[in-house]
Amino acid sequence: LLLDILGVLALGDPGPLEDVVIDRYYIPKICLREAQMGDFIRYHYNGTFKDGKKFDSSYDRGATVAGVVGVGRLITGMDRGLQGMCVNERRHLIVPPHLGYGSIGVAGLIPPDATLYFDVVMLDIWNKNDKLQVTTLSKPERCNRTVENSDFVQYHYNGTLLDGTPFDSSYSKGSTYDTYVGTGWLIKGMDQGLLGMCAGEKRSIIIPPFLAYGEKGYGTVIPPQASLVFSVLLVDFHNPKDGVFLEHLEVPESCKRRAVTGDFVRYHYNGTLMDGTLFDSSYSRNQTYNTYIGKGYIIPGMDQGLQGVCVGEQRRVVVPPHLGYGENGAGDKIPGSAVLIFDVHIIDFHNPADPVEIETVFRPEGCNVTTRNRDFVRYHYNCSLLDGTRLFSSHDYEKPQEVTLGANKVIEGLNSGLLDMCVGEKRVLIIPPHLGHGESGARGVPGSAVLRFEVELISMEEGVPEGYLFIWHGDPPANLYEQMDLNKDGEIPADEFSTFIKTQVAEGKGRLMPSSDPEKVITDMFQNQDRNQDGKITPEELKLKSDEDQEKIHEEL
């Protein structure tokens, strides 16, 4: 093929005063640099005579040729023919005898007055005055910190020679290259080229040989005096001295209390690596993560990072590996020595010693009568989580909620919050889970949830002591049975009993246990007295609750 080309060009032997003939038969589209006098170059070549007979070849020796161009260390024809070449450019050079080995030749190899034909490909060009070439290919919008000396970095790379020949790649190994920067563990050029990078940044780093492997090269893949090109993606970095880094993304205007050691916190989170890879999310499980902080139940970085949070706050917690999962990582999603980024949203928190928090929003003037245990109350309420999630409301029904206080009919915290209220009073109650629905929660209420109630007392009726359905305002009649036996027939059926009790209530002599169904209360009273359940009360069966209690005490004694 070489002979055919030369034949087409009709080039004969140059005369003794001919200059070198250059045929640039392949020029790369991109030529960032041309070889100049004094540059160090590296190239391959085949050398032949006119008849095609080969007299030398760098390919046959399995090693490129390296040297300085234009300073007389090569035959003059090569010195001239190599100048102006680009990396990956290919040339045919015809070197006349007087620019080659002249009338002497090379004994046993090149005869006198021989015209020499070279097929050359340029592989590398550099100069002792060259500097590291760093080009940023892409950079994330957010970059809170950049690489500094002594940082531990994790990065992917593709490494090639200047002509594009690959020599190594972290991608082919399936793992990042992990090392310290600026401590001599890397070649100088890479130590310098990684400085100032952001996590997620991509760079092209071109390293001249004297900042790489120099005259010795490296094994069989990097020849001596080779410039190296690294395409680098920085995945992760940290410093062993790093603490937890906090970024307050959103803090509520009103923050009455901040979480401290020993508090139980419920929060949602997304956990990512520094390159944005999601490794875990509470949102995907549709369930908050619930834990005590400062007690060692979670990684140290999160124990520290959740200190001082407010309810409703959104916070970013950046955890270095020595405060996370260390060199070993966790499972198949968190690699060793990984920096972890948690974007957290605090739903609520409490302390196991917390009481009910009561805020009086409105209290009527001249309020002298307040609620006590055993009182029957009617109230309206709205119930929500601390993040504003609506749970229940009495306004969704036709009438207010009704309950006898102290009868274990509502959660303990709500019962406490309804005590000492006036009719018309409005309150906001914050109820910790141990006074609410506990760790298990209830239908519609998450486990360990702090509840917020807005309550308004609509009405109240004075109650009776526990265990009583009716109490006398004074002493009961001495001849109670005779007065209750309205028709004087010696027995008291249900209708007679009901009429008597209603009369006592109407005349203010006693009162029933407050209830939305007084008839049921009277029925229960009758059934309690009709001990043989025959539908009537006899003198032997009728007993006051106080007398029954005394009999029980006597039996126990």
TrEMBL record:
Residues 524-557 are annotated as: Disordered. Gene3D superfamilies: 3.10.50.40, EF-hand. Residues 531-557 have a biased composition (Basic and acidic residues). It is found in: Endoplasmic reticulum. Its EC number is 5.2.1.8. Signal peptide: none annotated. It holds the Pfam family FKBP_C. Residues 479-507, 517-552 form the EF-hand domain. The keyword Glycoprotein applies. InterPro entries: EF-hand-dom_pair, EF_Hand_1_Ca_BS, EF_hand_dom, FKBP-like_isomerase, PPIase_dom_sf, PPIase_FKBP_dom. Transmembrane segments: none annotated. Residues 38-126, 150-238, 262-350, 374-461 form the PPIase FKBP-type domain. GO terms for cellular component: endoplasmic reticulum. It catalyses: [protein]-peptidylproline (omega=180) = [protein]-peptidylproline (omega=0). SUPFAM superfamilies: EF-hand, FKBP-like. GO terms for molecular function: calcium ion binding; peptidyl-prolyl cis-trans isomerase activity. Keywords: Calcium, Endoplasmic reticulum, Glycoprotein, Isomerase, Metal-binding, Repeat, Rotamase, Signal. Its main location: endoplasmic reticulum. It is an enzyme of class 5 (isomerase). PPIases accelerate the folding of proteins during protein synthesis. This is peptidylprolyl isomerase. It comes from Pitta sordida. The gene is Fkbp10.
